[in-house]
């Protein structure tokens, strides 16, 4: 018996068993689905949504259930989108935006929206124009983080029905037309000039205040010196008056003579003085002074 005859007899006798085995193998192959960690499978039965398979081993009914969509649940980034917007103070700006999102409910995404990226981009563009239209140009430049949060919140509300979560929204750049840039540059230069003038005026004011304080301090010190000198002269006058009261007229004559001698001494000490003119009573003054001293010594 040839091998071909043996094989044909074996198949003919066990055809039912072979068909059953093939059916079981195909059923197992079609009924077991291994889903990767980064994906979810959408299963349909007779064209209707049956279930969503998560990561791991899953079982479906062979020949009835079919995996229609394999959806990635990884976070995605939309291409950078540029749209024009007009601020509340009628300034034209170009805003570059980027949005990050991920699909949470694939059954909503595949049955409610066809082009996810295009839909989100259109939604973001409309929201950006609306939000910037309610803000002045200076607010757009200075409150960018607040604007991003408002845009993100509104985009999340808009795409919630599609089973999508917006994880982050970014405003990459805000560009201005040339006319607006020139106007802002002029404004900036004017503001710098104003600040420079204010600083210079404050410096001059401070200088005047310091000069006045210095003059006031000098006047106070001169007044203190004069007061001390006046006190000293008053004390000296008081001592002389007391001496006159105690010793009579001779003490006064002695003081006058002594002052005259001191004055003549200062005149003689002057530079280049070869001749000294004495008053007529100078000799009498010296005589009286020495006489008084002689009288005291006795």
Quaternary organisation of the protein chains: single chain
> What fraction strand?
15-25%
Strand count, sense and barrel status of the largest sheet are: 4 strands, antiparallel
**Helical percent range?**
55-70%
Instruction: Supply the helix-strand structural class.
Output: alpha+beta
What's the Cα radius of gyration?
56 Å
The general outline is rod-shaped
Write a short abstract of this structure.
The protein is built from nine helices and nine strands. The chain is of the alpha+beta class and 298 residues long.
Describe this structure in words.
This protein is α+β, with helices and mostly antiparallel strands. It contains nine helices and nine strands. Strands 6, 7, 8 and 9 form a four-stranded antiparallel sheet that branches. Helix 7 (178-247) crosses helix 8 and helix 8 crosses helix 9 (282-297). The relative contact order is 0.06. The mean pLDDT is 80.
What key attributes describe this structure?
298 residues, alpha+beta, four-stranded antiparallel β-sheet, three-stranded antiparallel β-sheet, rod-shaped
């Amino acid at each position: 018996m040839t091998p071909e005859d043996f094989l044909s007899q074996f198949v003919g006798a066990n055809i039912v068993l072979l068909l059953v085995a093939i059916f079981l193998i195909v059923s197992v192959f079609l009924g077991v689905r291994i889903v990767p960690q980064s994906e979810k499978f959408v299963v349909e039965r007779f064209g209707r949504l049956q279930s969503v398979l998560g990561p791991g081993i899953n079982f479906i009914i062979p020949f009835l259930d079919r995996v229609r969509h394999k959806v990635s649940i990884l976070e995605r980034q939309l291409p950078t989108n540029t749209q024009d917007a007009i601020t509340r103070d009628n300034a034209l700006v170009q805003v570059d935006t980027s949005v990050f999102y991920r699909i949470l409910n694939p059954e909503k995404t595949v049955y409610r929206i066809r082009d996810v990226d295009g839909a989100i981009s259109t939604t973001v563009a409309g929201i950006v124009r609306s939000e910037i239209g309610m803000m002045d140009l200076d607010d757009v430049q200075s409150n960018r983080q607040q604007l991003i949060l408002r845009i993100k919140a509104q985009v999340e509300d808009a795409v919630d029905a599609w089973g999508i979560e917006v994880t982050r929204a970014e405003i990459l750049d805000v560009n201005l037309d040339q006319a607006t840039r020139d106007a802002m540059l002029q404004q900036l230069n004017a503001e710098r000039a104003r600040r420079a003038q204010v600083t210079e005026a404050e410096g001059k004011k401070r200088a005047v205040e310091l000069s006045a304080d210095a003059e006031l301090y000098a006047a106070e010190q001169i007044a203190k010196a004069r007061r001390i000198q006046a006190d000293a002269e008053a004390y000296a006058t008081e001592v002389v008056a007391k001496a006159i009261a105690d010793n009579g007229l001779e003490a006064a004559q002695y003081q006058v003579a002594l002052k005259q001698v001191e004055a003549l001494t200062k005149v003689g000490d002057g530079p280049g003085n070869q001749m000294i003119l004495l008053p007529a009573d100078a000799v009498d003054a010296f005589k009286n002074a020495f006489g008084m001293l002689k009288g005291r010594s006795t």
